[in-house]
Amino acid sequence: MFASNNQQFVFQCYTPTDLEVSPPAERPAKRTKRDRPAHCSILASEEAANEWLAERCSEHDWKIKKSRHEVANKARAKRNVGSSGRGGRPKVWQYTEFWECQRGGAYEDRHKPDIPSDKRRPNRSHGSALVHCEARLVIRRPVGQDVVHVEYDDDHNHEVGTAAAMAESMLSKRNTRYIAENIELGLDCYSAFKKLLRLDEEMLDAISGRDNAPIPETLAIEYMDVYNACRRKFTTAAVRSRDGMESLRIWAEELRAKGYSVLFQDVSVRADGEESYVFAFASPWQKELLRDYSAISCLDSTHNTCFSANGKEEKAFLYTLVVKNLVTGKGVPAAFMISPGESQWPVSDWLSWLVKPVASGGLGYKGKRWMIDCSDAEAAAIRNAIPGAEIIVCMWHVYKAVAEQTKKLDVATTGRRDKTAANRALRDGAVNDFRSLALCDTSEKFHELWAKHMDKYAEYPAWQKYLQTEWLPKHRQWVRAYRQGIVQYGIETNNYVESWHSHLKTFYLKLMRRQRVDILLYILSRQVLPDFRREEARIRLGFARPALCARERQSRDLADEIPSIELGDMVRLDVGGDENASVPDILVMSFTRDPEVWYEVSVCEIPGRTTTELLRPVIAKCSCPAYAQTLLSCKHMYLAARFALYSVEPAAHIYAASAEPAAAQLPPPPPQFQQPQPLVQPLSTFDTSASLAQFQLLPDTNMPAADLAKDGARTRAITELAKIAELSEQLGVLSPADFSKEDIGRIEAQATSMRRDLTALLQKRPLYARQRS
């Protein structure tokens, strides 16, 4: 009746007569108390009874009405407690189990009477699946016997075993289990699940014909079946109590036990009479983000993520603090807060908790620069919680609000066609004029353009009033002249937060918008944060590369345009720098080719990606004005990376902070172990060729000191290879009579290629996998 075809259940259509089965040891049908005939049989054992029941369930779905562990007469059992030894009729059956047809019973309208009919979930198009079917199964086992008595009443009042019956019935148990098993494997959205439901051409041709071909039972699965299964999964995993507030209290204790910092205020009563709650948390990894990335903070809220813990009638808002992760080059949520209120007070409580010192129960966040949209409530909360904070607004939201307001501008002219064109020109001009105000580089220029703007639109007092009341009081938040010292990492808009909201709703919530707040907590703590940590780990270990913003990509392209033959003229080692540094910094000439202007590119040693590579040098920062203003990787850093074959790591200072000295990373020597003499020469007398030879001849031993010597030889060899770059400077001193310009370029190219290949060899990287910074 059911076969496996393409890993889907296949349902074979039968007539009712084909489904008649003769159980073993069948007795003549008898009339039950309901005056309905039933097939009676006696089976030899429990195993035989279970096989018989499984066969009946493969023909049609049955639901249990009374299990064998359920007391038949609970009132009588309660009266007989403690009265053993009473007389009466002896017990005949050890247990009795009742199963009824899945379509038995009647439909009950469970909609709340106060919900309008247009907002109720619609019923099935073909009516309820419950049709008062009285078919049932009865399984009894006599006391003291191994045999099992079964009764089978198969007189259904509906079709069984037909495609119409499958379409009219509720989802079968096999399909329910099929959906649940695949959801546990990660297919928790219909778009991914739909691939499993896809049929091949042969099966589609067969079921489209009239030859009574097998019908895949998965044809009955639709979108809402997968959606409801996902909701059941999240509800089972996330809901701690039927009461929403009690569930939040339990969640707070569970998160604290895992090292999370949690702020839970169940009721906050304000002077204006508003009552709300605040649930904020940050994982141990998020607390590290708050410690390392405080240059600029992006703050915003989103709705339609869940309903409040107080009930479905109240919405809840998710507030997120997003910072730029320098390891991944992307925005990452560093703290969450959920509250049903949109006023400034819940946000103020949350931010006060974030900036409060750790010793006082806070997180000790040092953020002083904040990016928000045009929300006055968020701006007031920041000022209230963080005195002296610098606030800038998202320019995308600013231009959007201004463009929306210009729709009220209307010219006084005759003619419909002329008026439409004039209005369009007026509104576009107002937006462009406002954009010119925002792009002013100095305060004097801004005030001059503002006065001209007011004179130009003197005929439109409503527009003048809008600018003077809405944007002039907070001009320091949107005019470039005042934002230059606040903007970091090139963040001019709130795109990091908007991208996070889109990512959350697209890949995690999907179409689930009306779940409880504890389900949102489960998604954030058990799915979202592990995924963000995995992405960071991939980049830290070299499996992926960090993302670059538009300015960084432009800087890299400018550095790549410099010919290799000119690298020696524009880049050189800072041999007169810090004497204690194991790797010297790099000097890069200004791209204006001014020989008097050089910028220092800092080289930092960070922990290696493998256990054999203790430290690796990377490009960390630059002394140029562009880097000092934006903290973005500049063209000088990418040019130095080409020269030294190092990678550009904007998060090098974070790596270096977690680095330990090489000796501290090695296990302590065993007792009576004599520290051997160094196997490498001092750096002052170290020669490149000797370094390579010595590196290849080091003994292959598992002793910690030998491993340390290998790493030291490798590091010094890579450092000494940089001396090849000085070859071009020495050749430049020679006169054209000794070497032509073409000869110098050819020798320099060959030396650069040799140096690149040797560096890749020493770093144990294949030549085809060299990083391109």
Q: Which short descriptors sum up this protein?
A:
single chain; about 775 residues; seven-stranded mixed β-sheet; six-stranded antiparallel β-sheet; about 15% strand; extended; disordered N terminus
Question: How would you characterize this protein structure?
Answer:
By secondary structure, this protein is of the alpha+beta class. The protein folds into 4 domains: 2-76 and 90-109 and 124-230, no CATH class; 244-394 and 493-534, no CATH class; 397-482; 550-667 and 679-769, no CATH class. Helix content is 41%, strand content 17%. It has 28 helices and 20 strands. It has a 7-stranded mixed β-sheet with strand order 10-11-14-13-12-15-16, sandwiched between helices. α25 runs antiparallel to α26 (704-721). The chain is extended. It starts with a strand and ends in an 11-residue tail after the last helix. The model is unreliable at 1-6, 10-24, 659-703 and 765-773 (pLDDT under 50).
